[in-house]
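To the wet lab folks,

You asked to see what we're planning to order before we commit. Fair enough. Below is the target structure as tokens, and below that is the sequence we designed to fit it. If anything looks off to you, flag it before the synthesis order goes out.
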């Protein structure tokens, strides 16, 4: 075995097998804070390989909701990745507290305050703005 061969982490593999665009997968690999904030970067969460995409009514951003299963609580959870102006050049992650917030990683409640969607739409993320997850 070549001792210089790159070693891959479980997170590396999960980024590759998620149904992300090539650009989003590259962003996940290249932005350390974004990568660390992905729920499936620790062994508490199991990614389900399912995403939902949608464009909000008040923005040109594309919303990518992705699902994980919380192995500690037995609950399904969803975070959101925002493709800024749907250009595939900049992405923001909206997730729960306990993650370091920065330019690209935001709190999930900020997502509900920033984006609006048509009522009763059949597709897309369905945030619950009435539920504040910061207390969790």
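Sequence we intend to order:
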């Amino acid at each position: 075995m070549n001792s210089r061969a790159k070693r891959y982490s479980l997170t590396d593999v999960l980024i590759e097998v998620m149904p992300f665009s090539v650009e989003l997968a590259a962003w996940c690999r290249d932005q350390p804070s974004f990568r660390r904030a992905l729920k499936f970067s620790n062994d508490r969460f199991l990614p389900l390989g399912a995403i939902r995409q949608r464009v909000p009514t008040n923005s040109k951003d594309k919303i990518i909701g992705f699902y994980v299963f919380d192995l500690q609580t037995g609950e399904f959870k969803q975070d959101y990745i925002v493709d800024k102006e749907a250009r595939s050049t900049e992405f923001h992650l909206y997730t729960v507290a306990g993650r370091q917030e920065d330019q690209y990683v935001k709190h999930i409640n900020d997502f509900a305050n920033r984006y609006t969607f048509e009522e009763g739409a059949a597709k897309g993320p369905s945030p619950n703005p009435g539920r504040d997850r910061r207390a969790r």
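Structural context that might help your review: The chain has one domain: 10-117. The beta strands are 45-54, 62-70, 75-83, 91-95, 105-107.

Thanks,
Computational group
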